[in-house]
Design a protein that fits this description.
It is built from 12 helices and 16 strands. With 413 residues, the chain is of the alpha/beta class. Helix 1 crosses helix 5 and helix 3 runs parallel beside helix 4. It is rod-shaped.
């Protein structure tokens, strides 16, 4: 036993004072270390000292009146006593020996066989084991604290990835209770592609580091996660899997929003550049029209009017294009469908005239009110009308436009 200046505090719990004196004399005869030895003959007083951690080592007699030292040992363990306890008895009993060791005793000694040498060895071993055990328990508490308080899902699973232990964050992430998760496999939470990838990586490498996967919650909500797992082996050869799953769903959403903002910014810059490049020659065309209008022969005003109107239309489209590059929201108003279609036809009138297409409009007697963004819907109708006109041969086409208040779909030609 290493020599130190700090005395070892030992409490002997025994209802026989003579046995206490004999045992304490053996201990005092141990060389190389000093001891503080106290006696307690009452069961409850001994338990209180154990609960409060008052001593470095406890020697407990098996016979303690109505109760036994084994009862005291078990009760002390329930109070998380971490100091070493040695059980003493007057007679050898293998079943008591086994039960004492299973209950947490560090050793089991027979009083008739006690001597200084045996006690020295037993005390030294018990204290050394106590230091190791306390270190292990401290580390276990630290890692258990990390396990329990981690915001990421931390889990242990068998070699088939059936969960054996999960931390509270697992239930927060996936929506299952701990008991439900312990009935599931990690594979059941992933899509087929991720399952195959996981099996392949574990089979070939035995680990997987920082891979992005899609996991599904109890309500089938998709979560984008980063997973790291590894195959480990216990000292008895049992294989298990440990892993961490980090939820990055919100991060991915933020990245998507940022990308959309960047795309919108690039789109806006492109639109402004194109609008500038188109508007400059358009202005020249309009200025030239203003100059030649007084000199145009009598038979050409119709075509001059078409050029003027469409130049103005192009200018209006450029303005709309610039507006579309800015963040906008749909503004719905109560309008009649007839009014919106009439406005679209008016804009398309020049194209209809130039293609020499005839058209027919059929409206119901009552106004067909809808809630719509008038300008956006007018552009949609205009595109449909222009596409229909362009699909017809010049001078032979018939455009049929109809609005019906019958909920049954009506075909338009």
């Amino acid at each position: 036993m290493p020599i130190t200046n700090t005395p070892i505090r030992i409490l002997i719990i025994d209802d026989d004072e003579d046995d206490f004196f004999i045992t304490s004399e053996y201990i005092k005869a141990i060389e190389g270390r000093s001891f503080v030895i106290d006696w307690c003959h009452k069961y409850q007083d001994g338990l209180e000292n154990m609960r409060n951690g008052m001593y470095d080592l406890y020697l407990v007699d098996y016979r303690l009146g109505a109760k036994t030292g084994l009862d005291l040992l078990k009760e002390a363990m329930q109070w998380n006593c971490e100091d070493p306890i040695i059980l003493l008895t007057g007679k050898g009993n293998q079943s008591i020996d086994i039960e004492a060791m299973q209950a947490g005793a560090v050793d089991y000694l027979l009083k008739p066989e006690l001597n200084t040498e045996k006690l020295e060895r037993c005390i030294r071993y018990s204290l050394e084991r106590s230091v190791s055990t306390k270190t292990l328990r401290d580390n276990e508490r630290k890692f258990r604290g990390i396990f329990e308080k981690s915001k990421d899902m931390v889990f242990l699973a068998d070699e088939h990835l059936v969960f054996k232990d999960v931390n509270p964050a697992s239930s927060v992430l996936l929506g299952y209770t701990r008991e439900e998760l312990l009935q599931l496999s990690l594979y059941s939470l992933l899509n087929v592609e991720n399952q195959l990838m996981l099996r392949q990586e574990l089979g070939s490498n035995g680990f997987l580091d920082d891979r992005e996967v899609e996991a599904f919650t109890k309500t089938r909500e998709k979560k984008i996660c980063i997973i790291s797992i590894s195959r480990e082996k216990e000292s008895n050869g049992t294989v298990y899997i440990q892993g961490i799953i980090h939820d990055i769903t919100n991060l991915k959403k933020a990245e998507k929003i940022t990308l959309q903002v960047e795309k919108a910014g690039r789109h806006g810059r492109l639109v402004r550049t194109l609008a500038h490049e188109v508007r400059n020659p358009l202005n020249n065309i309009q200025l030239a029209l203003d100059q030649i209008e007084p000199t145009v022969p009598q038979e050409l005003p119709l075509y001059l009017d078409i050029i003027t109107r469409n130049s103005n239309r192009i200018g209006a489209l450029i303005s709309e294009l610039l507006d579309s590059a800015r963040p906008t929201e749909i503004i719905q108003q109560k309008k009649t469908l007839q009014e919106i279609i009439d406005a679209s036809i008016a804009v398309a009138q020049d194209r209809i005239n130039l293609k020499k297409v005839t058209y027919r409009i059929r409206y119901p007697d009552n106004p067909a009110y809808i809630m719509a963004d008038t300008e956006k819907l007018k552009i949609a109708f205009l595109n449909i009308i222009i596409n229909a006109v362009e699909a017809m041969e010049e001078g032979t086409g018939m455009l049929d436009i109809a609005v019906s208040d019958d909920p049954t779909p009506t075909s338009c030609v």
